[in-house]
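Human
Can I borrow your eye for a moment on a structure tokenisation matter? Give me a protein, with the fold worked out from its sequence. Write it directly below this note and I will take it from there.

Assistant
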Amino acid sequence: MKNLIKFDWAVKRLLRNKANFGILEGFLSELLNEDIKIKSILESESNKLNKYQKFNKVDLLVKNSKAELIIIEIQNNQEHDYLLRILFGTSILLVNNIDEGMDYSQIKKIISVNIVYFDLGQGNDYIYHGTTQFTGLHTKDILKLTKEQESLYHTANISKIYPEYYVIKVNQFNDIAKDTLDEWIYFFKKDEIKDEFKAKGIKEAKKQLDILKLSDTELKEYENYIEHQRYERSLIVSNYKVGKIEGKKETEIEIARNLLKSGVAIEIIIKTTGLSKQEIENL
């Protein structure tokens, strides 16, 4: 076992403690390129739309000093509909934070930070940032806010009004930390922090997320968590291999059927497909 606790377990168990806010503030400051101060950790279980709660797998919901809401979610296993799920997550959060009689200008800004350990979509980068902007169909210019709207929304950019999305594809990172944000991603991937790393909050993470700081109970829970992750990965690999084998078998059977219909000798079909004589005769 490595010396540092995995970040996903720390998010669920340790980083909710106010004493450890500096770790989250450091990571978010490097990602968002601004000085982030966490005001509170919110509980997503207070969701008004309880019937949708099972779909809303938020790991951590943070409110910063600007009253912005930041969703932090870590996903280890493949989910083909993940991009739609993060859209659903921001939508539910938006609805949950609208009170009756509230002006639209009071709607809270939402930032969705997604740390994924599988290949999500196609792309060569390992960090993607998604925003909303309006482009002229004829002139191709970007729609801007008026001075009055800038004063109302406290921003000069329309994209800052709408939810923003960050996707960090950890496994695609090449293990070379070129800047301070990369130092955090290196930690996410390797569960290690080098002595020379200088990112905001990273040294605090190295100190506070040391496995040796865990109590006996916490250590047992952490070991069970690691073992459960290993078991889930094993299931995914096993199911993939079984599916691949079954798919290959189905293909061979279909080829054999077509060859039989064409009058090809069974001996040739056996060599072509790898099926036994009995399997071919039973088609």
